[in-house]
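haha ok so turns out i had the wrong file open the whole time. this is the CORRECT one, sorry everyone. sequence first:
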Amino acid sequence: MDKLLESVTQSPELFPHTFDVRSDHLTFIRLTRTDYENASFLDTRILTPKTPSRAIPWHLVAKSIDAAQLREHCRFIFHIGHVGSTLLSRLLGAHPQVFALREPMVLRTFANPPPMFSGGDFDDRLTGILKLLSRTFDANQISVVKATSFVSELAAGLMSRSCALPAVALYVSAESYMATILGGPNSRQEAKMLAPSRIDRLQRRLGQEWRSTSWSEGEILALSWACEMSALAEAIATARERILQVDFDQFLNDPTALSDVFRHFGVAVSGGEVRAILAGPDMHRYSKAPQYAYDTALRVAVLNEARTVHAAEIRRGLAWLDRAASQYSVVGQALTLGQTRPR
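then structure:
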């Protein structure tokens, strides 16, 4: 067997970066343990001109996975975006028993598969990818995958698999979400870019098409929140006991709740270990760009300013949610989830 294929199954050093449906090839890149620890995103942003890569036909990858008898046992962090998922992943990854992977690009292909991707091929390849994402550097580690927000489209299906393990659903209330997005020009631009796909996704979930093209920014953000929250609500309904619900605002009010997340994932931690992790640098820097200082107090200040400057748009968004919830049970379930105090 190809030496590279042998090494694929031995450690996560060869990371499954992208899957090309048309050619049925999986591209691997080489990452060190430090690369994983530093990366906020395992997508195109991890690539450099010097990143080694190789595309391998899927049938050869599958043969290697089967020969090594790899198991699918990764845990997941599902979230709605801009709710501290990167911070939570970094805090978990600070423990030696957790191997944290942040936003593997390869899962996005399966969250929005092209029409040519048939059911059998989809399931076979997704299973193989999940087995590859379950590899760890150390035998006593567990793999915790922080998915991209729209990969939550897969959450219900992933949690209904026979081998599915515990997961976390991370979110904030609709009002807090809108203030968060409106508090930064980059997040506002991203929300605008993602709006068409979120409209399509929510319409598919509702089974009905909206005709309006005159939504305000606040209404678009409310719809975006409803889209992502309804995906989480569907997953929670599928596997309620295996999904720990975490409101990020409540988490910041009491970060020692990190111990609950560790226990949910099966990692035994002491109070001293949790306090040491929380006393580390992660709680005091911007998780997606750790070179910048950022903490709870700064976040509160940014959100409060956004609530003042954009009060009218936030009111429009909340009003849209109330109207939509009265018409569509899917939106109503999302709104109920966002207002429910997590266990």
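The first strand starts at residue 14 and ends at 20.
again sry for the mixup
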